[in-house]
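Spermidine/putrescine import ATP-binding protein PotA
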Amino acid sequence: MLEASRNAKAALREVMIDVRGVSKSFPTRDLGMVKALNTVDLTIHGNEFFTLLGPSGCGKTTLLRLIAGFETATTGAIAIAGLDVAALPPQKRPVNTVFQNYALFPHMSVAENVAFGLQMLKVPAASIKTRVAEALDMVRLGGFAERRPSQLSGGQQQRVALARALAPKPRVMLLDEPLSALDLKLRKEMQSELKRLQQETGITFVLVTHDQEEALAMSDRIAVMRGGNILQVGEPREIYHNPSSRFVADFIGESNLLPGAILGRNPDVTVSVRPEQIAITPAIEGRPGRVKGEIASVTFLGLDTLYEVALPDGSRLRTRTREAAAPLAEGEDVVIDWPDTVERELLN
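Structure:
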């Protein structure tokens, strides 16, 4: 057990994907060029679950496709496991990709779908049978080998796609929004499955998603992207509690962004306070607090209740609190407060 832990930590220090000065431009219909990536630098380690997170059009899928070899960089270099892959086609790179569209062959059985990539790699037949069985066991579909994709649920089809990608034993698994077609409950289950598979195999997983909650739940580290740039790279807790910019604070989870000034320094700052860090109590004469307000709306979320509070200056704050025995009501006067330690001052 100790040796396995040491090996895992050593793998985590290994540079698995090294992106240096990579940019990518695409031609437009008017014969111009549009830049999808702006001189990106990024290091992803071995045995790491890494997520590229950002809104549509931020460049995250373009970066994934460059790593996979489906696109060629305009400038810069990409190395995988120490190997410059610029001249290598996708099938020669030590990576496999799982897409949003599972792309299973409907006329093939589950086992045949998983075996297809191995056959293209000319793996011996005896080894193919063993690897298919191992891959299906990893995704908990050992008893489904003879079924056709049409006989499977969406979640089971996703598992087949994962098994097919795992069977060749790649160094890197690239995941292009693979859970977006699943319903909420199934998506949660598959998040746990993906994390389990990454930990069990030690393969470096690189996920592309626009779902902040998904990224926070699954990742060892996250790169937040916008407009072809990487704005911040860090562990989920670091990015959530210490965002580097107003955009990151607003994009990762919910945040109250308040105008502020630092006396004697930069007057143009934004103060970020998370809704769950705000205390809200009924207004009572003499009760201390930062500001008084009025409950503008109440949204019951099960475990939590979301309150929107109208402030005297016309602005609004959102707070999330555990459901109380006597919940607050719309129109009720309240006092809100938060400790100085949870404030984050962000340059605009």
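Confidence is low (pLDDT under 50) at residues 1-6.
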